[in-house]
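Reply to dn_fold:

You asked what the input looked like. This is it:
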Amino acid sequence: MKFGVGEPVSRIEDRRLLRGGGRYSDDVNLPGQARGYILRSPYAHASVRSIGTAAALAAPGVLAVYIGADLVAAGLGGLPCLASRLMPLRRPDGSPIYEPFYAVLARDKVAYVGDAVAFVVAETQAQAQDAAELIEVDYEPLPAVTGPREAVAEGAPKVWEDCPDNVSFEFRAGDAAAVEAAFDKAAHVARVEVPISRVAVTPMEPRAAIGSYDAFEDRYTLISGTQFPHDLRTWLAEHVLGVAESRLRIVSPDMGGSFGLRSTVFPELPLVLWAARRLGRPVKWVNSRSDAFLDEPARDLVMQVALALDGEGRFLALKVESINNLGAYLSIFGPLPTFSNLGGLAGPYTFEAIHVRARGVFTNTGPVVPYRGAGRPEATLALEQVIDRAARKLGRDRAALRRQNLVPPEAMPYKTALTFTYDCGEFDAVMGRALALADYAGFEARLAEAEARGRLRGIGIAYAIEQAAGLWDEGAELRFDKNGEVTLLMGTHSHGQGHETAMRQVLVERLGLAFERIRYVQGDSDVVPYGHGTGGSRVSGLGSAAILRAADKIVEKGRLIAADRLEAAVDDIEFADCNFRIAGTDRGLSLNEIAAIALTPGALPDGMDSGLAAFATFRPSGPTFPNACHLAEIEIERETGGIEIVRYVAVDDVGTVLNPLLLEGQLHGGIVQGLGQVLGEVLVFDEAGQPISGSFMDYAMPRADQMPRFEIETHEVPTAINPLGIKGAGEAGTVGAMACLVSAILDALAPLGVDDLPMPATAERVWRAIRDARAA
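and this is what came back:
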């Protein structure tokens, strides 16, 4: 079997994971460890008059009870937000972004149900939890607000007294004057309002953290699943603990899903470290699923979208206003989806002008975290929904209207009307193949057949394009032993994506090594020299490029060693298939032999360092732009509102395909996450800010029996941004899925006069829409 780039290699890590060999954070237990438990606020908004800990301290097995005042006295900093460092954000009046102090433990007030109030450490988990119930907190409840629209309404409760309008920042982009001019001359204008529900991230593995402290080295170690081991070390050391990075080690073991969640600095991370130092023993904390519903939310916004078209159906301008619920605090990347991926509003289409105004607002809910796509699915949903509305208003075929306005390949590189510059793409070819694969032309016959059975049928279409792989550089290191086996150390982190397989494939492709002679190492800041982790579909393009650069350094040194041993000129040494040879001869040395020579004392020429190892980084010149056309066909049962997805097709341009099997898995998983949000996922709060959907009993996760067989094809248009031409695929499925399914649902309901349906499209909501349409 071949193992190079483009081959459908099965995941090598599954040999370990499927046989119980996974090592997750909660699998780790250190000698002498204690257990920690966080007491959380039962109120969405309240002043804290006092906190009594005497009874808890006297409880069996309790070692310590810490409250906010203890952390202040110790000089711990607040949890950081980096959004304003990535983009200079300002409030509507021009003043700097309002960023409340995000205390590790709340002090004078709590701002959402689940706000961390105290940290109890005991010998066992049960003892810590029992003791937490004995803590006496005197709360004075305050009015609360939970929705983004309600947060900016006149007279809304103030989440923070010195932020009276609840607006943290306002972000504007595009040409407002050009947009207004285009709307003035437009022959047609379509408008939609797009509310996007708040969801829980819910990875399979709950978060966990183990902190330890070595008093002799004055050094902390944190074991916890994180997407960004090296960056987390920086954030905790500089912003919270106030120590040098060298005083903190991060170990991120196997991780059961993340989707953006574990890019965040949660309170328990510094808590277990600080408590371990105070107590002189390791401290372990494991989250409960019910607590996770309180502090792991994402999405939650409402968008007003207007599209201007000329008399021929050409897109002139797009105008968007959004109100984005940030929660009570700003998590480290929480504001990012509000502004960083808004360029996706341009889609694959031509516009004269686009303008967007996005506000980030505070509510008495948990601070949002980035979630798969992080603004990309929201932008695509808003754009594609208003295009559908325009097509119906004009009596145009929805696919034809889109194809009329696609950016042609000869226009590349193409500067859009909103921040992005696409380097390459064949959008019409991708859409054409997707329409053919889905038999779009034959839909009317299938619609008639469904109507004969008394069912509603709809077809949805969405073309998604996203910015990917644009943040920071990435590193890789290769270390050979004397037997020619290599250890590949990556600064990224694989938590389900299959990096252990894919990155080996890159090395096999470049050096010709046997697949099984490569060992993969990640997730330990003491062992891996450098990296910026996993997120934003950055690994396949940036990580592979770093590997190639490191491999080139290995080849360069190998040629020097071979030239010395073979008594030949360096320029005459060729490398291919794991062998160095003198050009035009059969004289040569294998890479294994070169590695052995490099590690043999005295075997190398004077002035050459011993060993065969190389480290390299790669920084792209810009982002890549994966794109895809999705089509979904659905049926709705009139009497129940139940939705059945009968077919789902997607044609993706992710550039060069590194591994077709891994790509298919990424796309399937991403599509399910997008469809799940449309079909049922939503976090609901009552008027007092209490969460109603607090467990899987009342939070509708997508199920396998709701999903069809996905039909996926690729249309490869390699990018020149990285050496292998990879664009990335980690976010791709989700980016298009939400918009596609909403399009299909509204298409099915359109004959009844239903042109709007807030997410999620539960059977009950669809049934009510059908009932109301009949009554109208």
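The chain is about 30% helix and 25% strand.
Hope that clears it up.
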